[in-house]
């Protein structure tokens, strides 16, 4: 069991919430999503992530090795430097932001609207890259022999806003979703996939 973290009003990217997806060059398909955090608006979420990172490492007996462990959340500038090192174009939406990737290889994440009601797969287009959401994740330590460290598990996503946003080119968890007051009504269908990239 990992350390749960609830991230409010973060931007979701590359959501694979209903079907497992394998990253290019891999065969390990998972449910997954990326979340972009603003260092000002999401200050509390970033602090919670740091605390959960330290707690997950400490509970695994690695508290004295924190300086050698990479947290699963990274500065956007660092992500873009790594992309450029690999010959990939930088992602402009990450400028001045933080990024965390979360995934689940077994349980499908819960997906809900602002009222806490499930969003069915037939309405999956309501959540696309660029939407504002609540992200429910947990940080856990893995002793994977090839890549040990702290990782983020994906538990659920709750849609906050898919109207006042700019699309980015890019077994259910037992979560109790609650209504989000003041959130606008969702719209559907989503923008075409070509506009996400």
Explain this structure to me?
- The chain has helices at 43-59, 76-85, and strands at 3-21, 30-37, 73-75, 98-104, 110-112, 132-142, 149-161.
- Strand 6 (132-142) and strand 7 (149-161) form a beta hairpin.
- It has a seven-stranded mixed β-sheet with strand order 3-4-2-1-6-7-5.
- The chain has one domain (3-195): Beta Barrel (OB fold (Dihydrolipoamide Acetyltransferase, E2P)).
- It is globular.
- With 197 residues, it is an alpha+beta fold.
- Residues 192-197 have low confidence and may be disordered.
Give a nutshell description of this structure.
With 197 residues, the protein is of the alpha+beta class. The chain is built from two helices and seven strands; from the N terminus they run E-E-H-E-H-E-E-E-E. The chain has a seven-stranded mixed beta sheet with strand order 3-4-2-1-6-7-5.
Strand order of the largest sheet: 3-4-2-1-6-7-5
CATH architecture: Beta Barrel
CATH class: Mainly Beta
Helicity, as a percent range? 10-25%
Total number of beta strands: 7
| Average pLDDT for all residues | 89
Enter the CATH topology name: OB fold (Dihydrolipoamide Acetyltransferase, E2P)
User: How many domains?
Assistant: 1
Q: What is the straight-line distance between the termini?
A: 34 Å
> What is the assigned CATH homologous superfamily?
Nucleic acid-binding proteins
Rough outline:
globular
| Structure annotation, total helices | 2
- Low-confidence residue ranges: 192-197
Percent strand equals 25-35%
Secondary structure class reads alpha+beta
């Amino acid at each position: 069991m990992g350390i749960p973290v609830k991230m409010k009003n973060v931007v979701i990217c590359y959501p694979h919430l209903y079907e497992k997806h394998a990253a290019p060059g891999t065969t390990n398909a998972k449910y997954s999503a990326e979340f972009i955090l603003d260092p000002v608006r999401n200050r509390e979420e970033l602090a919670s992530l740091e605390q959960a990172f330290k707690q997950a490492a400490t509970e695994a007996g690695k508290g004295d090795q924190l300086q050698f462990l990479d947290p699963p959340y990274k500065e956007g500038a660092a992500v873009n430097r790594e992309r450029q090192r690999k010959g990939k174009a930088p992602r402009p939406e990450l400028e001045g932001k933080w990024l965390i990737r979360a995934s689940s290889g077994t349980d499908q994440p819960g997906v809900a609207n602002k009222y806490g009601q499930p969003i069915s797969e037939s309405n999956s287009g309501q959540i696309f890259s660029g939407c504002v959401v609540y992200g429910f994740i947990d940080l856990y330590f893995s002793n994977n022999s090839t890549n040990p460290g702290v990782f983020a598990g994906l538990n659920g996503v709750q849609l906050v806003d898919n109207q006042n946003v700019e699309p980015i080119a890019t077994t259910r968890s037992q979560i109790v979703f609650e209504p989000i007051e003041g959130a606008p009504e969702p719209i559907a269908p989503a923008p075409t996939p070509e506009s996400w990239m």
